[in-house]
Prior knowledge:
The protein has 15 helices and 13 strands. The protein is of the alpha/beta class. α3 (67-80) runs parallel beside α4 and α11 (275-282) crosses α14 (327-344).
Amino acid sequence: MRILWINANPNPNPGGTELHSIDFINAIEKYYPELELYKAVAKGSFVDKNTSDKNKYYITLKSEFSPLNTLKLVKLAKKLKPDFVIGNNGNEYINTFLAGKLSKSKVILFRHMLNYLPFFNKKFILPKVDKVFAVSQASKRRLLKDGIPEEKITVLPNFIDEDKFYYDPVQKENIRRQLNINPQDKVITFIGKTDAGKGIFDYVEACRILNETFKNLKFLIIGYGKDFDKAVEKFKEYGLYDKLITTGKTDQPHLYLKASDVVMVLSRNEESFGRTVVEGFSVKSLVVVYDVENLKYLVEDFKTGIVAKNGNVEEVVQKVKKVLTEDKLYDEITNNAYKEFLENYTKSKILDKFVNQLKSLM
């Protein structure tokens, strides 16, 4: 099977599609050497810098309206004659479609975003491709609203690398010891960009209220963002700074996350997937979300985590109190969540599903 993977935007900074391409490209090359994988990427881009030089071709697509470089891409596809041409960026759908159709290859597109498709793509591109992989239920629902035939769509979530994200009680104990967390402490974690829209201030308020009931709490913030300093000031204002642990920007979030007992993902806005939810599942923590797209599809209330009304910090607090005071319920929920991760979101599961879907189209 021969694949041409296109992610040719010159963006030097990581976004969701760039990280997704990097994850898939590197994993396919490592675990599926029998597949012939070719890459069309922009020279110097984030994808270029984080993938091997094997079978790599340099093409820059700054937009869908890049006629000269689109022609170059079409020529490359005709030369390689791949079985599949795969586009992973919404701004490259037209280019990918032309390269696939003119090289007589099957066209596969990934859909990440929850915004509605541009008219031309909605009417003339996506209905005519061979498969659209939606990264979430929310993404699939939006595609259906755009009129894309359901038989064209398969949900293929972003995978979480089980070599990094996993539950290990010994490692959890070691990480907590390194962070000066006592065995009896409960660790309430925020992971990701510390921005208001991601729920950092909801997290702070929930911590403040929970601290009135539980005196053995520690608060862990993994990551950094524009509201980081303001959030830290709030902890100082509430007299909780001595219980706060921060990592700042880190390339090892998976290690710190293992120290968690509760992971709060209180995004107030839509999320195309909700990666940190599944990461919380992977370390057997109690995951708490608001009922926004796509988070509400990832978590079942009191089965695999906690779901609260968007912006309702008091509901978050009351539900967390209930679970933290009932050990049996906490174990049941976190074990269910861990099972959900192992069965549906690991690298091995998602890659196998991806390859099998392609084989079914040949």
